[in-house]
Design goal:
single chain; two-stranded parallel ribbon; 5 helices; 2 strands; 38% helix; DNA-binding
Length: 106
DNA sequence: GCTTTGACCTTTA
DNA sequence: CTAAAGGCCAAAG
């Protein structure tokens, strides 16, 4: 746990704390950063972050939809990444938050 | 130094 | 109940 004053590093750290096969939401991450309604900056931080240094593919929106899939190499990269991790998807193309929703409990 | 945009969420009408 | 607008904070132009 590093207390980096940089907003990026904070988001990167939390996202990096997400175990494989699990997914988190922007709201939870934002709430963890003491900024409940500022979930936008979380996604913005990930966009500015390097996908190779931060597992941004494990971060989804409140509905489990892959909102940032277009920021990856290809729109299907994010889906492929999560599937490779063992994450299951619903018929709507959203992640099964009921099974893989991670609330940073550990 | 001000304006616009951003991988969203919450609340009010 | 559904729909719409506001808000959050920061970075780039």
């Amino acid at each position: 746990m590093q207390q980096t004053p940089d907003f990026f590093q904070q988001v990167h750290t939390l996202v990096s704390c997400i175990p494989p096969g699990k997914v988190s939401t922007y709201g939870i991450i934002a709430e963890k950063l003491s900024i409940r309604g500022a979930a936008r900056m979380v996604g913005w931080a990930l966009s500015a972050a390097d996908l190779e240094h931060v597992p941004a593919h494990r971060v989804v929106n409140r509905y489990g939809a892959l909102t940032g899939k277009m920021h990856f190499l290809t729109p299907e990269t994010m889906r492929d990444m999560l599937e490779a991790e063992g994450v299951t998807f619903l018929d709507d193309g959203t992640v099964d938050l009921e099974r893989h929703l991670f609330g940073f409990e550990g």
